[in-house]
Amino acid sequence: MLHHEDVVELELLSETVDPVLTLIISTDPRDPSNSNAAWQLRGRRLLEQTHAPEALVRRAATELEARAAPGRTLVLLVDKEGVRRRLALHLQLPEQAHYGVPLLAPVLSVLSERMRYAVLCLDERAVRMHCVFAGEIEEVTDLLPSLDPAAWATVEAVFHGPGRRVRHGEEKGADWVDSSVADHQHRALRALSTLAGYAVERLRCDLIVICGPGERPAEFEAALPDRLRRLVAGTVGARVEETPAELLPRVEAVEAAAEQDRELKLVSRAVERGVVGADETLAALGQGRVYELIAAAGDRTALPRCSSCGLAVPPGTCPACGGEVAETALDELLPSLAQRHRATLTFVHGEAHQELQRLGGLAGLVRWTG
Question: Of the residues 69, 128, 174, 257, which has the fewest C-beta atoms closer than 10 A?
Fold first, then answer.
C-alpha cells in the first residue's frame, strides 16, 4: 500500500530535472486484452516510441518482463542509474510513455483524488483497524498498544462485563444494573474514540468507516466527539474476524457513495461560483485563477490545445507562448496542465460525470472571479 510518505516521495521525484524514461501500462488481469501478458508487448512498443537512448529502453523492457505485475496499472521509472521506481497501482490510468522529466502528473493526480480511510471494526470482544487507500487495504497492528493505558483498561473492562461491580453479597436492582452497563459501555466507547482520533492523525486518514455487528457501529459513532463524527463516511455491518479481502468490497461501497456525493457538490460549487465549459475553464487555468480543476473521467475528446499553456487555439503554433498546438486527449493533457498551474485535479464519475458533460466536460473552482 502507498503510505503518505510514499506519495511525498513521488512528488519530490516528479521535480527531477535529469531525464527519466517513464512507462504507464495497464496490467489489469480482468481485461481480455491483457491475456498472455500482452501488456508486456504493448509496453515495449510504447517504450520504443519515446526515442529514449537504446540502453534505457532495453533496461526498462527487461524490468517490464522480469516479473509479474500485480494490480491494474504498472508505473515504471528508469534512468541511467537503473530502476528509480516501480509502482503497482490498483487504479486504472491511461497508457503512455515519456522520456524527459518524470511523467508522474497522471499518477499524482489520481492519487490526490483518493481519500484515505481509517476502518475501525469492533464488537464486545475485540477491536481491529485497517487503512484503505487507492484500492488497497492494510491491517494496522501497532496502534492498539499505543492507547493511553488508563483508557485501554476502561475498554478491556467492558469486554469482561460490568457484573463485577456487585460485590460482598450486595443485591442491586435492575435499574442500577442497567445504568451501570450503559455507563460502562459509554466510557468504553469514548475510550475507543481516542483510537479513532489517533488513527486519523498518525495514518493521515481523511475519513472514517466503522464496522461491527448489530448496533455497535452506530453506538460508537454516537460516542465520537464532533470533530471525528464529521469524518464518518458510513458504517458497515461486519464481523470483526473478517479478513481484509472480505472487508474491502464493503468499504469500497461506502467510499463510492461518499465520493459521488463529494463530486456532485464539487460540480454544483463550480456552477455557482466558478467557471464551466472547456474554453472558459482552460483560459482561467492558464491565468492561474483555478485552484481545483474538475474533469469528466475517461474523456478522450481530442481538441486543439497548446501543449505548453493549454489555450484553445487553431492548429500550428500558439500565438500566446509559441508552443506546439496539437490534437490532444483531455484526460492525458489535464494532469500536466493542472500540475503546471498549481491546481488540484478531480475526475468525476456517475451522476457528476453526466452533469459535467452537459456543461461542457470541464469546470473549475477559482481563486478570484475574472
Answer: 174
Is the separation of the CB atoms in 321 and 349 below 8 Å?
A: no
Q: Where are the domains of the chain?
A: 4-113, 117-167+174-242, 264-366
User: Residue 363 in 3-state DSSP?
Assistant: strand
Q: Which residue has the cell 463529494?
A: 262
Query: Rounded to an integer, what distance in angstroms lies between the CA atom of residue 209 and that of residue 114?
Result: 15
**pLDDT per residue over 249-268, tens digit each?**
999 999 999 999 999 999 99
Give the global pTM.
0.78
CA nearest to 92, candidates 9, 6, 33, 16: 33
Q: Residue 182: what pLDDT? A: 57
CB atoms within 10 A of CB 306: 25
Which CATH superfamily is 117-167+174-242 part of? Answer: eRF1 domain 2 (3.30.420.60)
Give the tens place of pLDDT for each residue, 179-233. Answer: 454 565 666 667 677 777 877 888 889 999 999 998 888 888 888 888 889 999 9
Q: What is the CA radius of gyration of the chain?
A: 25
Residue environment code for 33-54, b if the CB has 16+ CB neighbours within 10 A, otherwise e: ebeeeebbebbbebbeebebee
Whole-angstrom distance, CA of residue 356 vs CA of residue 271: 10
Cell 528509480, located at residue: 84
- The domain covering 4-113 belongs, at the CATH homologous superfamily level, to eRF1 domain 1 (3.30.960.10)
Distance of alpha carbon 48 from alpha carbon 200, whole angstroms: 44
What CATH fold (topology level) applies to the domain 264-366? 60s Ribosomal Protein L30; Chain: A; (3.30.1330)
